[in-house]
Specification:
This protein is an all-alpha fold. It has one domain (22-172). The chain has helices spanning 8-17, 23-45, 47-50, 56-76, 82-102, 116-136, 139-160, 167-172. It is globular. It starts with 7 loop residues before the first helix and ends with a helix.
């Protein structure tokens, strides 16, 4: 039986829609959904105080909401098409905005910088690496950087915002 060569359109369709997310993509997506839900709950519980916090906090909440919403979409759907690139740039823009905004949030450490700000510097560097590796076509590096930033900056660092008397911890009253 002779097999015919795949057309260019078929190869492009396979490239975009033949992608199968790995187990880590599902784990990270679930983590982002849970973090987004916890963040929404915290903001809802603290809604009366949101207007009184410095403007950097609502910016942080909004950009993180965008990132946490888009992460599962970007991890689980097709790669390489126009929508992935557009959503990816929105995601990166939100990550960079969140990292820059964090330099103006200094409630811990008597108004000085804290160790979390080192993560913000790392986030800015890794965000650049994510874009550079995608543009270069290095999909393995791109995936590695995305997974790393989601684990470190969103899930681990995000979890700490619900502890140690920080704002979400106070609003959710988890310490009581």
């Amino acid at each position: 039986m002779a097999t015919r060569a795949a057309s260019s359109a078929e190869l492009q369709t396979r490239k975009m829609w033949g992608y199968k997310p790995g187990p880590m993509d599902y784990v990270l997506s679930i983590g982002c959904f849970l973090m987004l839900g916890a963040m929404i709950l915290a903001v809802w519980r603290g809604r009366e105080q949101v207007a009184s916090v410095p403007f950097t906090y609502p910016i942080h909440f909004i950009t993180l909401g965008v990132v946490l919403t888009l992460t599962p979409i970007l991890l689980l759907r097709a790669k390489g098409d126009r929508l992935h690139r557009v959503l990816g740039y929105v995601w990166i823009g939100s990550m960079v905005t969140t990292a820059i905004d964090s330099f103006f949030i200094r409630d811990i450490n008597d108004g000085g910088f804290s160790p979390i700000h080192l993560l913000s510097i790392l986030t800015l560097f890794v965000s650049w690496r994510i874009v550079a590796s995608a543009r270069k076509g290095d999909h393995a590096a791109h995936r590695k950087h995305v997974h790393g930033i989601v684990i470190g900056a969103l899930l681990i660092a995000g979890s700490f915002t619900f502890m140690f008397g920080r704002l979400f911890d106070i609003w959710l009253d988890l310490g009581a």
